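Hello K.,

You asked for the raw outputs rather than the summary table, so here they are, unedited. I folded two proteins back to back in the same session to keep the settings identical. This is the first:
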Amino acid sequence: MGKRYYCAYCDRSFKDDPEARKKHLSSLQHTKNRADHYNMYKDPEVILKEESTKIPCKWYLSVGDCAFGLGCRYSHYTPPMIWELQRLVAIRNQSKLNVTPENGWPNPDDIIKEYFENNTSTSSTDDFVYPTWNRPLELHDYSMLPPSLWPITPESLANTTTFKEWG
């Protein structure tokens, strides 16, 4: 049967040869489908800028459908959708600003940057205070405890030969 080429934008397959592929990729339908796909991932600020300059589509607002679909030169966004876009853009712009603790939440990027800049030096283990574990009173009478029940000390953690006795 031969190789087939599948176009995910157009949801169709055809014979895979250079001439057929070139013809398909340059077709108006493929170009429109590809543009529609990437328009779904546009930044809300760009969408708001484009849609606020357009006149609302009378067919889309009255009937709920438009023969031109995504290629319509009029806006298919309702006023509540435009309001939601404005709110989303405002939230994004506010989060981009460097907010100080006095007037709101700090910027997460600044927190991460500060953390990695200030924690580049390694601290010595001498500064660390090791917790001490005491043997329960019930076990003080038993002198021949297995290694798994010995109290943990910093020396026992550093000495890995004791772990070989566990078995």
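The second followed immediately with the same parameters:
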Amino acid sequence: MTKRFLENLWKRAKHLPGGTDFFQYTGNKIQHAALKLTRQTRVAHPSTVMLELSAHCNLKCTICPREYGYGEEMDMGLMEEENAKKVIDELVPYVDSIGLTGMGETLMYKKIESIVEYIKAKNEGIIINISTNAVLPKTIEKIGAMAGKLDTIQISIDGIDDVYNSIRVQSDFQLFKNNVRQIADICRNTSTTVMLNMVVTQENFFHMKEVVLFAEEMGIGFVNYTIFNLACISGVDLSYYDFYQGEAFQAEVKRLQEHNTAVEVTWSGLGSDKGFQSCSLPWSHFYVCWNGEMAPCCAKPFPKELSFGNVFKEGLMPVLNSEGFQDFRTKWLKNETPDFCRGCHYVDCKKVNI
């Protein structure tokens, strides 16, 4: 278990639901375990959910699915505040964490502070996370207003200087650096954790160590690396994944590991030999798109390709336990990869040795 995970676990444990809500909360945990043990395709009320408040973004990053075939077909918009609150009402008292992020830039959602306050009013122990590119105008003011209320602010970084600029198109590294420094300073003595996230590709892998050095300079204690996910990147052959087995990438991993640092380094999307069953998302960490559609996961949140229903119209639990979603989980139990998931690093990338 990582330090950040344990910190959030302790935060949640200190503020578990009280009164009758406690019995609903614990009963739901027992139901979840029982359904899992008996290999049912239904699920209990979710412990973690992502709400895509914004599908709009101010950048055009080369590693973002928005800039490829699937993304070009997606509808873009903002989740209405009342709809967001409606879903939150359905989640409480069962939920442990809510991510207020998606395919867009989270801080483009003008009423995000209201949503954060609404969640905390329900239960201050609910973990709230956001992701941001940190270069939107008024970023510092918005973060300042939510410091101590958000639990994690994940900042996207995909290299340093010109490498960053070449990937995060329409951004500027100096502006980014100045904003990150201010965000780190604002959050330093609060309960809000700042972490950096880097999508590792052939274009930037040689900056993995440099990102840790940047974190050290900024006073940020957490860096996560994510393997490039091809599930929603059209026009790229799956042989791209062979790169992560190659000598050049492994040499950079070694250079990173040999660097003595206090920064906690984590990885996600490292592939697997287990196929579809390596992915836990059909059972947890559900994703609600800005328009209420429930796509299978955050890696490919394109409901025009596959949606299990509309949460705003049908309700959260009816969608989670819809016939379509249960059929999807039946495939998981049989380890049969759906066409929707082809190309995902969990399914088609060989295990990466880190």
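The chain has a mean pLDDT of 96.

Happy to rerun anything if the numbers look odd on your end.

Regards,
P.
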